Amino acid sequence: DIVMTQSPDSLAVSLGERATINCKSSHSVLYSSNNKNYLAWYQQKPGQPPKLLIYWASTRESGVPDRFSGSGSGTDFTLTISSLQAEDVAIYYCQQYYSTPLTFGQGTKLEIK
Amino acid sequence: EVQLVESGGGLVQPGGSLRLSCAASGLTFSSYAMNWVRRAPGKGLEWLSYISNSGSGTHYADSVKGRFTISRDNAKNSLFLQMNSLRAEDTAIYYCARGGVSGYLLDSWGQGTLVTVSS
Prior knowledge:
The complex is a heterodimer.
Chain A: E1 4-7, E2 10-13, E3 19-25, E4 30-31, E5 36-37, E6 39-44, E7 51-55, E8 59-60, E9 68-73, E10 76-81, E11 90-96, E12 103-104, E13 108-112
Parallel strand pairs in A: 2-13
Antiparallel strand pairs in A: 1-3, 3-10, 4-5, 6-7, 6-11, 7-8, 9-10, 11-12, 11-13
Chain B: E1 3-7, E2 10-12, E3 18-25, E4 33-39, E5 45-51, E6 58-60, E7 68-73, E8 78-83, E9 92-99, E10 106-109, E11 113-117
Parallel strand pairs in B: 2-11
Antiparallel strand pairs in B: 1-3, 3-8, 4-5, 4-9, 5-6, 7-8, 9-10, 9-11
């Protein structure tokens, strides 16, 4: 199984400041035949289902604000929120969809400082 | 707009069974793989099972293999999860999720249904 490890577990950032969440996989999720990283980021707010933010490590889902960006390749990935808004308070998860069992990181709780 | 609505959750005793359903609308259901994911209280997301668009292919997490069975009825735009031999640690909110690109990218989610396993 591919183990996904996020850091930090929790993060407090001031409004308007940058938030950075890291995700490391125990095995590369870069598929050589198409040069795509099978890595997604999800946002889950209290009482709501998860929402897909980023896929292929850096492609924003339709409707996701451009303050959200994803980067990285192979085994190391980052989700960046360039200017934190109050509505971004949530738990963020990375997930690999390279192979089954699909696996998620443990989650990073993002709060306002 | 894609809509996924889960139902069938509730309180069940350890060792009991439940069948969850997920009604899909706003999509050509038979074109998409589907998945079940859960979130236990105080824990993170856990993928449970996948079924291909035709229903011919399935995958399971080790934690539920042999106890849970995923199925679908494309004529009724419905996804199911039959859960047997339930344990306290199966207590969670259960979500159905559409498999987008590759079948494993979870690009649309239902609101979830709560399953509580307790005596």
